[in-house]
Each structure stands twice: as C-alpha cells, then as structure tokens.
Amino acid sequence: MIGHSNNRIEAAVANNTAYIKIFGRGTFQTVADFRDFVKKSLEEGLGVFIDLANCETLDSTFIGTLVALSMKSKKEGENMLKLFNVSDHVRNIFTTLGLQNILDIRDAVPGEGGEYSPIASKAHDKVEITDLMLDAHLTLSKINERNAVEFKDVVEFLKQQR
User: Fold this and answer.
1) Tens digits of residue pLDDT in 97-153
2) Which of 2, 11, 36, 51 matches a 20 to 30 Å C-alpha distance to 122?
3) Helices 60-75 & 126-143, crossing angle to 10 degrees?
C-alpha cells in the first residue's frame, strides 16, 4: 500500500488500458511509484485513464509530474493520458496553474479496469525524490510566468538540497 491508509493508488489493466484510481491525497510521497507505473504503461502502448473521483487533492509535485507525463504523451503523438471525475477543487487548482489546456480532462471513465490492486511500490531515496520534486516544479514553472514566480523559492530550495 502506498502512502497513508487513506492516500493510496490502485490500478487495473484491461483492454489495452491502464486504469488508475487515486484515493485521498496525491502527494510527493506517492508520486514516484505513480510516475513509474504510468511511464511503464505508456511505454507498453497502453492508454492511461486516471480516475480522480476519490481524490481529495493533489500537491504541486504530483501535479507537475502529471503534467510532465501528459506533455510527454502528447509530444510522442499518443495523447493517451486522460483524467476523469475531476472534482471542482482539483479542477480549480488546475485552472489556477494554467493547466486546463494541457491536461486532457474528461467527464466519466469509459469502461472499467476490472480487478484493482495497489500499484507496485519500491524504495526511493532522498536524492531521487528531491530530483522528482525539482523536475515537477520546473515543469509547472515553464507553463506560465505566474507559476514561475509562485514556485521560484521552492525551485531554489530544491536545487540547494541536491
């Protein structure tokens, strides 16, 4: 199980699609395993459907990683990463960060993934997590000037931690 009892990520694979459900909060503590699972799924040519119906919120590291994965999917011409059941709260965060035209947000998940189970978890050292956090915030900073200003101190702090 990844994260705290209420914060977890589960997935199922069916019909050439990886179905992912985020429960509770998507944070820097769970994002490395999420990133690894999504990258592997995309590399295998699977579509990635992320269901946020049970997601309370996402932190900036999780969002930045999600944006980077989405942009990579689009750049490679696949555009196979889609978000579903996004709450008003999370949608407002995306809008505030200027992501409404970057993320592919849909209303309802088409089909179901079958049997869900926790995604694989492995140990990630402090350097890897710091680099992931830095990459996520640099990704958000490149989206627009407001984000660059918003995350300037975070980026500087993370660079010093490396």
Assistant:
1) 999 889 999 988 777 777 899 999 999 999 999 999 999 999 999 999 999 999 999
2) 51
3) 70
In a domain, 25, yes or no: yes
Q: Are 26 and 33 in contact (CB under 8 A)?
A: no
Half-sphere exposure of 55 (CA within 13 A, CB side): 27
25: domain CATH number is: 3.30.750.24
Q: Which residues pair with 158 in a beta bridge?
A: none
Which range marks the domain in which residue 72 is found? 8-121
Domain count, the chain: 1
Q: Tell me the residue ranges of DSSP E strands in the chain.
A: 8-14, 17-26, 47-51, 55-58, 81-84, 117-118
Does residue 158 lie within any of the structural domains?
no
Contact of 73 with 81, CB cutoff 8 Å: yes
Residue type (1 letter), 6 = N
Q: What are 10's strand-pairing partners? A: 21, 118
Confidence grade of residue 2 (pLDDT, cut at 50, 70, 90) = very low
CA 13/CA 19 separation, integer angstroms: 6
